[in-house]
Amino acid sequence: MTYVLGLTGSIATGKSTVSQIFKSYGFPVVDADIIAHEVVAPGTPGLKNIVENFGPEILQADGQLDRKKLGQIVFADENKRQLLNRLNGHLIRQEIFKQVADLRAQKQPLIILDIPLLYESHYEEYTDGVMVAYVPEALQIKRLMARDGYNETDARHRIESQINIEEKRQLADFYTDNSGDIEMLKAQIQRFLQTHNFI
Ligand SMILES: CC(C)(COP(=O)(O)OP(=O)(O)OC[C@H]1O[C@@H](n2cnc3c(N)ncnc32)[C@H](O)[C@@H]1O)[C@@H](O)C(=O)NCCC(=O)NCCS
Ligand SMILES: Nc1ncnc2c1ncn2[C@@H]1O[C@H](COP(=O)(O)OP(=O)(O)OP(=O)(O)O)[C@@H](O)[C@H]1O
């Protein structure tokens, strides 16, 4: 029996940090951000969709998607962000399901499904439980600004494009408190794995 654990949070609340800890135990992680990048690689239908809708100026000189430029457009305009989601959402979904099916076929006991927009895109129905990586919003803004160099307005635009982290924590079956140090986080994941007999 495979247990599919959805892992989500809001931007910069620590999903990647939590998924690294699961990986360190050898559990496989299906990473929606990586898949979202792969479906828009040069020569893909995903990139063609974006160029048709956002114009060729959305490409860098080397033919790669200018992610910074696209991010600036979509996080400042909700209609454009929804357009982007509609363009390639099905390609991302297909690849997520393919990877989960492959891992199930390998009879992996635990698969981590790291999806930032898990609740927004209703992936919870494909999981056996959802874990939210949580920090209070003030710390989320601080870490987002520190990591990506955004000013507070840009950071808030990105945060407001997702369901609020307090609401996600309420929806979750499990949550980690990422406001302490990494050791505190590791201890929480270890406890989760032990409680559910994965280690
Ligand atoms: C807008 C893009 C070009 C910005 O690229 P950039 O390299 O700056 O950011 P990156 O891809 O690393 O995403 C960082 C975080 O932004 C948040 N985010 C990304 N896309 C979205 C979106 N459409 N709506 C809300 N939040 C988003 C997520 O929390 C994600 O972890 C890129 O995020 C993108 O192509 N997004 C659409 C694909 C998508 O929906 N990805 C989320 C997978 S569920
Ligand atoms: N416990 C912690 N203590 C200090 N800094 C942390 C901690 N956990 C995460 N961080 C830092 O906070 C930032 C956000 O963490 P991380 O990248 O894991 O978030 P994320 O939810 O995966 O982000 P995104 O939504 O953008 O993919 C990173 O710079 C990370 O190094």
UniProtKB/TrEMBL annotation:
Q: In which pathway does it act?
A: Cofactor biosynthesis; coenzyme A biosynthesis; CoA from (R)-pantothenate: step 5/5
Q: What is this protein called?
A: Dephospho-CoA kinase
Q: Name one Pfam family in it.
A: CoaE
A molecular function annotated in GO for this UniProt entry is: dephospho-CoA kinase activity
- Family, similarity comment: Belongs to the CoaE family.
Q: Which CDD domains match?
A: DPCK (cd02022)
What phylogenetic lineage does the species belong to?
A: Bacteria, Bacillati, Bacillota, Bacilli, Lactobacillales
Q: Does the keyword Nucleotide-binding apply?
A: yes
Tell me which InterPro entries the record gives.
Answer: Depp_CoAkinase, P-loop_NTPase
EC code(s) of this entry: 2.7.1.24
Q: Does the keyword rRNA-binding apply?
A: no
Q: Which organism is it from?
A: Agrilactobacillus yilanensis
Query: Which chemical reaction does it catalyze?
Result: 3'-dephospho-CoA + ATP = ADP + CoA + H(+)
User: Keyword set for this entry?
Assistant: ATP-binding, Coenzyme A biosynthesis, Cytoplasm, Kinase, Nucleotide-binding, Transferase
Localization, UniProt: Cytoplasm
Positions bound to ATP: 12-17
| Matching PROSITE patterns | DPCK
Q: Write out the function statement from the record.
A: Catalyzes the phosphorylation of the 3'-hydroxyl group of dephosphocoenzyme A to form coenzyme A.
